Target: Helix-turn-helix domain-containing protein
Amino acid sequence: MKSLDEIIKQYQKRSPLLWISNLPDDEPLRKILKKGQYVLRVTDKSGIFHIGHAADYAKKAEAYRKKTCAYIELDSDPLWSVFDKVILLLNGLRAKKHILSWQLDKMIPKREKVQLAYLYFIPKPHKIGTPLRPIVSSLHMPTTGISKFLDKLIRPLFDKYARSTTIIDGVDLIQRLEAYATNGYLNPTTYFCTFDITDLYIMLPQEESFDILTEFLLQYGYHKIQNIPIDAIRKLAPIVIKENGFPYENIFYRQVIGGALGSVFTLTLANILMWKWEKQLVHRLTISNEIYGRFGQSFSSKYQISTSYREKCIVSSYIFIDNQNGVLTTSVYHKAVAEPYIVPFKFGLPRHVFNNIIDTALLRVIRYSSVLSAFNEERQSIELMLLYNWYPPRYIHSRFHKFFARYLSLQTILPLLNDNSDLALMRCLSLNEPTLDEKKIAVETAQLASQSQNQELVVPPNMKQITAKMKRRNNLIIHQTYENGVYTLKRNIQQLWDRIYSKHQTFSTPN
Model:
């Protein structure tokens, strides 16, 4: 049997996209990993695999627990104790009419479905020493329903009122920087600054976070949200953050500092904590016509500073940003540890999914590339990526041509750009198109405004589900195109269906 190093070297010599799929059988690899006590994990934020020694993982996990002091050992399984606390709290709030019946149904756990959370670590090879990120999988914990409900309740409020300091995505960042440059604030002496807060979610101060959550809601005039008073929210939030128990290496633990990374409400609570922290900084920067924005756990700012973070070029949100003597330039940034030729899917999905892969890659390149040379280099990289994944050249050419035709009247059969003015036009048009994240926040803001107009009228969300289900009854979905001869078959069948059956009572009326 070959050693693990021999297997890795063998497949490293092949195409970087195909070596995993060409493994003859994963069973020998499993045996080698088990025999050598190796751990195979998907890495954090890079989509590649990492192989490490189990002993090394154990040492780093133990060091992390000692460093953060965020976990304490328990004598027994905490599952049913947490379950009883959740049931008691929710029934008490319902008895006092602080929550409605449908809200209770959304949050209350089902005894036959609850499971204890579990802790696992994923490596971060893009950082020195390959540290580990702890993830608590709490999908079936008794508190999961409350966590999801509070997140949907409060996150739209944060998105609305913290929009000026929140960077949604790379397009949003580019638009802000270009507006800054257009207003004449960017000059050759302007520097960029980025910084991270290490272990923000893990080191979240629990009681202080609850106080800041209350302050946030009161500052914007929310004494109730969907008929739920702040006092009830203040009782629901601690049980999500504090009652976080899980086993690890046959020992039960409970998290006493911060919140679980696997809980959606932890992110919302951390965002509101940072809203409080950054207010003074934002005020000072605004006075001096500087800009500040926060993207997830990352922060970026533009002002003249005298620290080790002082640079004229930075990387933020997969964008390389450079100040070239007072001229802002941007391009796509590729992490050195990321596999450059990986695509999300290779087979087994509808054709439109593969179309979207190409269109999305080209759209990002156009939006991020401020100069023609950077664009052409990235376009060639996309073509190589698709060819490595067995995309037919004819299909690649067709998709490229169709994509460019959306913005330009092409005078050539080749989907190429050789003029800076064409790139500038395409970039301007694409940057003005709303991204998916912008659309999502716009919808949430509109729904929030509608709810604010009439706080007493609270409609359970399952009404939307009924409407969507009724719409799906009238749709015939063709999932696959198996050959070029039936390329238009999906559209033809759909048109035929609409013409004959859309007004038929049997198909238009739900049972």
Notes: The CA atoms of residues 105 and 145 lie 9 Å apart. Residues 351-436 form one domain.
